[in-house]
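This follows on from our talk about sequence and fold. Can you supply me with one protein entry, sequence and fold together? Could you add the entry underneath, on a fresh line?
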Amino acid sequence: MTNPMELIAEPVAEFPCPPLGAAELSAADAERMAGMFKALADPVRLRLFSRVAAHHSGEASVCDIQNVGVSQPTVSHHLKKLREAGLIISERRGTWVYCRVAPGVLPAMARMLAPKD
């Protein structure tokens, strides 16, 4: 019997990168940050991420966010890229898939982009 609440991707716990400008980035930190920024560099992905992040319940059904001007298979592809970058997590509940921002991602992004003290 399959679990009706199947987690589609494990979240990356956080992006433990220092703020840009605070210190020189290590190769590993640069790889992590580049993966995140690469995923967000696509306008459709950025719109999908913002819709998930701004959803009033903290999570959104794919049906709630898919109207971004591309086909449903393309939306699925972009959500997969956001999951692979560790930016969102998705969970299947029956026939519906719900997405939410991975825990710690927004505060970590804010720390990375904050001006150095």
